[in-house]
Structure formats: structure tokens, C-alpha cells
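Entry 14. Structure prediction run on the chain below.
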Amino acid sequence: MHTRSEKILSFLLSWSPGAPLATLCWAVACSAFEGIRVVSATPLLIAVIGVWVAAVYLQPAPPRKQSEGNRNQRNVLSHLQHITLLGCLVWLCGWRANQLILEFFSFPATLFFISRFFRGRILRVPGIIMQSMALGMTCAAPALYFSFLKLPMQLVFCVPVCYLGVLFCIATWERTEIRQGKNSHLCPVICAGLLLAASLHHSKTAAPFEQAFFTTIAIGGACLMVAPLLYRRLSIPAAILLNWLAVILPAVAGILLYAPACR
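Output returned:
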């Protein structure tokens, strides 16, 4: 039987808050890496709401053990949330954003759209990788736009952005194993360790922007290595929440470490 706290966590997670919060934190962190002191709200809102729309769309179906009434209520709330967020996104893109902003978000949006064709037991993995890369590009898009020195195409070839996509992919892998009730997360932990080592290696010779980016990703790899030690002691909703915190806290650390001083 679920405790009251587990029910509250399950209800909160049903609104898919993890992905938009992670997007907001990493988008601000990427702006800090670029040394940007002032950011406008529109690109950040497009990134956050766009990811939120995708997260609601990809949300796992309610468990069958729930009563039919609870499942129907959750489905209705999910549809209302999706329609509301989609309406906000259309308004932002149609009336608040300029063409250059939309060009920066066109690459991750296209990649996410293509990933939806990768379904089934075998093709599902490449689809998840593409979605993770799209999320990494979405987080970096506002910073590259605010810099006024980079082109949208550079999202595809920016190495730390690809590493951020790998970080999101490993976190998604861990969440999948949590939902399946697996106690061992050895393979994701090994991949997180490799990401940590590779990020530290690249940070030694990278430019200042990429150096800060790689260091923060290394912190994220370390968090994803430590978090599985606690998963088995927690309920499934609490473990999923901890997984999202392991992704969000490194971005917060990056903001605190690298944000330029306000004048």
C-alpha cells in the first residue's frame, strides 16, 4: 500500500515537472558558461514549454492496478495540461519569437519529430538517444542565441552539447530501470563514469565556455554514479525524483560557479 508521501510524489510526477525544470536550469547554466549577464524570457519559455509538451506526450501510461476512474481522471488532466501548454507554445512562437530564435529550436524539434518514428523493442533505443540529444540542444539553444556570435548549425557540432545529451540519455536509462523494478544499475553507472572521465579530459584543453560546460557535465556524471546507491532504499516515485535531482543539481552548481557577476 502506498504511503501518503508516495501518493503525493506520484501525483506531482504525473505532471512531468522534471524535464522542464532540468531544461530551465541547464539553459540558465549554459548562459552562465557563455558569460551572459542578461537573458530575455522568450527563448527560455519556448525551451521549457516545448520540452514540457514533449514530456507530457511521452509520459508512461498509468499503471493497470489503478482503478478505472483514477486512470480516466489522470488522462483527462494530462490532455488538459497538454492542450494548455501547446497553446502557450504556439502563442510564444507566433507572436513573441523572431525568426532567429525559431531557427535555433528547429534542429532539436526536427530531431525529436524524427525520433517518434523509431518504435518497437529494437528501434526504441535509438529513439531515446535522439530525444536526449534534442533535449541537450534545446537547453543550449537560448545561450547560443543570446551570444549573438554563434549560428544555429553549431548546436549540432558543439561537443559539450552532445555530452549533455549523453547525460540525459543515461538518466533516462536509469529511470527506465527504476520503473522496471531493477535493483542493479551497473551499466548506466559505468557509462556515467566514462562520461565523467571524458568530460574531465576535454575540460583541460577546451575554451573557457566549453571548459565550464565540460566540468559541469562531469559533476552530473558523478551524481548519476552516486544516485543508484540510494535507489533501492526508496520507493519508485522517490527514486525517480532523486534521478531528476541528480540531473538538475549539477546545472545549479554550474550556475553558482560560473555565472558572471552582476554590475
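The mean pLDDT is 90.
Filed with the rest of this week's runs.
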